[in-house]
Design goal:
By secondary structure, the chain is α+β, with helices and mostly antiparallel strands. It has four domains: 1-63 and 246-389, no CATH class; 68-237, no CATH class; 444-515 and 695-842, no CATH class; 523-688, no CATH class. Helices cover 56% and strands 15% of the residues. The protein has 27 helices and 21 strands. The strands form three sheets. Strands 12, 13, 14, 15, 16, 17, 18, 19, 20 and 21 form a ten-stranded mixed β-sheet that branches. A hairpin with an 8-residue loop joins strand 13 (545-556) and strand 14.
Length: 842
């Protein structure tokens, strides 16, 4: 038994190494295809995990060891709540906190400032306490002192003793950098100051953001939270709620990036399939001879699977190492947000994840095994006598031409595309894309035979006739060659259509929501932008201002496990709200909203909270709750967590807050935006304003969009490169397998140039069919991406747009590349002697 086992292992190793030695380039390319997919998926997982964990830890460090945080449904609560909570019999410790994202002059990102009572916070957040100088021990209580984390100091280029300038409405707040913090998170940009000083300096007297609580032992948290929420003004949240908000905010983006990375691995699977299928076809007679001398079907099956597994294992190991290196370099030089902007103010570092590495290693290996499963089964089931005959190569893959499995895949894909999301993720949408792609590739033998037989006509030029005749009569081999082209091109088409549709939709949306030529505020970023009523009147009286509209924004908490919802109070014409906001669904008639509070919700509110036109809801404002009705649904590409628009007059009436955040200015005819800006600068507060023209906002927004999708463009290019490698390897393998055919043609007088022309014609025709079918299949997949995956992931819709120039350019590149590949492969295949080539057929 040992001798038989050793003999089996010996010949198996001999066959494996012999195949790799005979065709090393093809094996290396297959390994590289698997490695690229594994590396991209593993790298994106490591980057996202590092950024998410670091950002979550930074958020948790703010509330530190508190059991619960009591906050309002808006960003501010009355400080009178603090003594009420501190005096409760079930509360052991209460610590007030005030948070503010303050605008920094000259910076595009705000600085988070945390106001704390240092005596109370010492027990809850000791790492965030300031470190005053030895000669100034009371700086923690000083009204002009602020303590910065090392990351904030490096970002602002400040040191102890310098002056920090911040924007608060029209005023500039000057604070002295009194020192650093005890132990902030690495990369966390945060400032800490005394809570009373912060209230005074930023005009927030009597206001808090939250009260952190430590409950006495044995207190039931759920009962406590229910008691706090009973009044309808406050809500008690846990640290787990903060983690859930962060996770929900970025989950769809992270999952979609991972799926995009696995597109390369998916394309690599078809590359392994074509490589192994052509290898089996070429060695069909060899396997038949091994069957004759005693090898079983099971041994042949295991041998081919072993070859595929070897490619997968080698590629997966290389991909794991490359992915870790890629993640480390990306985090070091570019940060961890991958263009999405979900994790600002942190500097994560990569940590090797053994479990994730094992998952991606297994995934790469399984993908390779699936890619060679059909060739392995065919090699095992082939009848030795028939396989030893020459010319039976195409029949070996006859099962690929079965129509019903392909139709079953396509039908299953159609059904999956109509299923709802799972846990807020479009898992069935992704499955539908995979099933449609597999089903389309399985239909290729039938499509190839039908198209090429229809194209063949008697009297055609000899080379064209030979090419069409062969392609029509060996459709199974043609389908193998087309699998790589079809998978890469169809996915590239689908992604290109989706990204172009999204970009055009965003551009149209920006045009709709930015009708005025000029926009002003006291701070482009942060929460401290305020324009008083008197200042509003002065702005409206500036020469050249034809019309000015003001807007107020606020943050509302609708669910402790979801990110805050943005409230936008702005002028909205109830008779025709579409003039102010991009309405999607028909609004309620103006007469039906008389006597009620109308609001207009974004698409995300429909998906996340179930709000539809006519839905009654409760709007939390100024620590009160007001009944409102949804008067319409509008499109918002800026906030996937949801937004609500209401009339500015209604907001001011309910809250008494007459300040606004920003303004939109329409200039008089023949008056430029620059002239109006110059006039506003002359106002007493003009130097404190920030100006942005609508064209600049659009250009900046589209630049951010392109940066967010930069990795998508990269993944599209990688998938296309893998597809081109598949074309090269496929034609190379086919020319080697057809050495007998070429030898016979040469023997009967066909010249070497004519055979090369024949190969170029076949390659060009195959690629043209692959591009044609790939375009149709990619268009169908793009419908799923645009109308199913994106709405289920990000809760917004878009209109279709076809990027014809890009699609034609990529199609031309693939067409030319395949022709050149066939040319080079033909030159290599015909380099041997005619006699030896003919002898192989005997």
């Amino acid at each position: 038994m040992k001798e038989a086992s050793g003999s089996t292992a010996s010949w198996s190793r001999w066959l494996l190494l012999g195949e790799w030695r005979a065709h090393p380039v093809r094996a290396l390319v297959a390994i590289a295809a698997i490695a690229i997919g594994v590396a991209l998926g593993f790298a994106i997982h490591l980057i996202n995990a590092a950024a998410f964990n670091e950002f979550t830890a930074a958020v948790k460090s703010v509330s530190a060891q508190a059991d619960l945080s009591v906050r309002g449904y808006q960003s501010r609560i009355d400080e009178g709540i603090y003594p009420q909570l501190a005096q409760r019999s079930d509360v052991q410790l209460a610590s007030p906190a005030l948070e503010l994202n303050a605008a920094v002059p000259g910076q595009t990102s705000p600085l988070k400032i945390l106001g704390m009572d240092s005596f109370k916070a010492a027990a809850l957040a000791p790492d965030l306490l300031g470190i005053p100088a030895e000669d100034k021990p009371y700086d923690m209580l000083a009204d002009d002192a602020v303590f910065l984390s090392p990351a904030a100091m490096a970002w602002l280029k400040l040191t102890t003793g310098d002056t920090l300038l911040l924007r608060n409405g029209m005023q500039t707040v000057r604070l002295r950098v009194a020192g650093g913090l005890v132990s902030p998170r690495a990369g966390q940009r945060i400032a800490v100051m005394d809570i009373g000083a912060m209230q005074w300096r930023f005009g927030l007297l009597g206001k808090l953001s939250r009260v952190d609580l430590v409950l006495k032992p044995g207190i039931n948290r759920e009962a406590f939270k229910a008691d706090i929420a009973r009044g309808g003004k406050l809500i008690a949240t846990e640290t787990s709620n903060q983690e859930a908000r962060t996770e929900n905010m970025s989950r769809a983006y992270r999952v979609n990036l991972t799926v995009l990375a696995l597109v390369a691995l998916f394309t690599g699977a078809f590359f392994v399939f074509s490589t192994q299928a052509l290898s089996v076809v070429r060695r069909r007679s060899q396997f038949a001879l091994l069957r004759v001398i005693g090898l079983t079907r099971g041994q042949i099956l295991r041998q081919v699977l072993l070859e595929g597994a070897g490619l997968g294992i080698a590629g997966s190991l290389l991909g794991i190492g490359s992915g870790y290196l890629m993640a480390a370099l990306t985090l070091k030089f570019f940060g961890g947000d991958l263009g999405g902007g979900y994790f600002p103010g942190v500097q994560p570092s990569v940590t090797f994840a053994p479990l994730a590495a094992g998952v991606f290693f297994a995934l790469g290996t399984v993908v390779a095994l699936l890619g060679c499963a059909a060739p392995a089964w065919e090699a095992a089931r082939a009848h030795p006598a028939q396989a030893l005959k020459s010319g039976s190569e195409d029949s070996s893959m006859s099962r690929l031409a079965a129509v019903w499995p392909a139709l079953l895949m396509l039908a299953a894909g159609g059904i999956c595309s109509q299923l709802p999301p799972v846990g807020g993720l479009p898992l069935f949408g992704y499955l539908a894309v995979a099933l449609l792609l597999i089903g389309g590739i399985m239909l290729m033998p039938r499509i190839s035979a039908l198209l090429f037989s229809r194209l063949y006509r008697p009297g055609q030029p000899a080379i064209v006739g030979l090419a069409l005749a062969r392609l029509a009569n060996v459709p199974n081999q043609a389908s193998i060659a087309l699998s790589g082209v079809l998978s890469s091109f169809s996915l590239m088409v689908a992604m290109a259509i989706m990204v172009a549709s999204f970009r055009v939709s965003v551009d149209d949306w920006l045009i709709h929501i930015l009708p005025a030529p000029l926009y002003i505020s006291t701070a482009i970023t942060g929460e401290s932008s305020r324009i008083s009523p008197a200042q509003q009147q002065q702005l409206a009286a500036v020469p050249g201002v034809q019309k000015i509209e003001f807007m107020r924004t606020a943050s509302l908490l609708f669910s402790p496990d979801r990110p805050n919802v943005l409230l936008m109070a702005r002028p909205v014409n109830a008779l025709d709200p579409g003039k102010s906001i991009p309405i999607l669904e028909g609004s309620l008639p103006a007469g039906s909203i008389t006597g009620v509070l109308p609001v207009w919700v974004s698409e995300a509110m429909v998906d996340l909270y179930g709000y539809k036109v006519g839905t009654q809801l409760v709007l939390p404002l100024n620590q009160q709750r007001y009944a409102a009705v949804v008067a319409g649904v509008w499109r918002d590409y800026a906030r996937q967590s949801g937004a609500i628009a209401m009339r500015l007059a209604d907001y001011q009436k309910l809250t008494g807050d007459l300040d606004v955040s920003n303004a939109a200015i329409t200039t008089d005819e023949h008056v430029t935006a620059e002239q109006v800006i110059k006039a506003i600068r002359t106002l007493p507060f003009g130097s404190a304003l920030e100006f942005a023209q609508s064209s600049e906002i659009r250009a900046t927004s589209l630049k951010i969009f392109d940066r967010s999708f930069a990795i998508t463009y990269l993944l599209e290019m990688i998938a296309m490169v893998i597809g081109l490698f598949g074309v090269a390897a496929t034609f190379s393998a086919q020319t080697l397998a057809r050495a007998k055919e070429f030898g016979m043609l040469r023997h009967i007088g066909v010249t070497r140039r004519e055979i090369i022309a024949l190969l170029v014609a076949e390659g060009s025709l195959l690629t043209a069919i692959g591009i044609l079918v790939g375009f149709v299949l990619g268009w169908v997949i793009s419908l799923i991406l645009v109308f199913i995956v994106n709405p289920q992931s990000f809760h917004w819709t878009m209109q279709m747009h076809m990027p014809w120039n890009l699609l034609f350019s990529v199609a031309a590149v693939m067409q030319v590349a395949s022709g050149l590949t066939a040319l080079l492969a033909g030159r290599q295949a015909l380099s041997g002697s005619v006699l030896q080539a003919v002898r192989e057929d005997w």
